[in-house]
């Protein structure tokens, strides 16, 4: 009996010593959760910065595009006058003027397509930003215990 009692006591002591205390586990889990939250926030900020830089680049390209379109418009007006005979075309013949006119129209169409592409990229960036904000809002809502939420909070979480 003594041996059996000693054996059972020693084995239960070993089990107790081999398992870390619950508070230690809770602290470790809390630290791990905070670390993950911090890393997630950093990743979100990095993504926001990337989107911001891309949006700024798109905005610059749109402004440059607008300037090029204005310059083409001015050149087109002068070319049109020459074709109508309102301005002195100098040594240029009508075929050369028409060729320049068609090249101008092609360039203008090319710039308009490029502008459309840039506007689509800008819209994608806005949608990505909106999605990111919604995801962050959902994370915050889900971090709260369900027992503490009222029906309005649960409905809002479902809607997000």
TrEMBL record:
Domain BMERB, first and last residues per copy: 45-160
Alphabetical list of InterPro entries matching this protein: bMERB_dom, F-actin_Monoox_Mical
Biased composition (Polar residues): 1-11
Start-end of Basic residues biased regions: 22-33
Region forming the signal peptide: none
Database matches in SMART domains: DUF3585
Region (Disordered): 1-33, 138-160
Record's compositionally biased regions (Basic and acidic residues): 138-152
PROSITE patterns from the UniProt entry: BMERB
Protein name from the UniProt record: MICLK protein
Domain of life (superkingdom): Eukaryota
């Amino acid at each position: 009996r003594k041996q059996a009692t000693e054996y059972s006591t020693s084995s239960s002591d070993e089990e107790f010593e081999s398992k870390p205390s619950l508070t230690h586990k809770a602290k470790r889990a809390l630290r791990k959760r905070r670390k993950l939250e911090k890393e997630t926030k950093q990743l979100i900020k990095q993504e926001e910065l990337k989107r911001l830089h891309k949006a700024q680049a798109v905005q610059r390209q749109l402004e440059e595009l607008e300037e090029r379109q204005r310059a083409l418009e001015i050149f087109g007006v002068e070319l049109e006058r020459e074709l109508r005979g309102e301005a002195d075309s100098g040594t240029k013949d009508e075929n050369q003027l028409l060729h320049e006119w068609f090249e101008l129209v092609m360039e203008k169409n090319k710039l308009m397509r490029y502008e459309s592409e840039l506007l689509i990229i800008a819209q994608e960036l806005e949608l990505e930003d909106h999605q990111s904000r919604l995801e962050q809002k959902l994370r915050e809502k889900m971090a709260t215990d369900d027992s503490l939420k009222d029906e309005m909070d649960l409905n809002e979480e479902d809607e997000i």
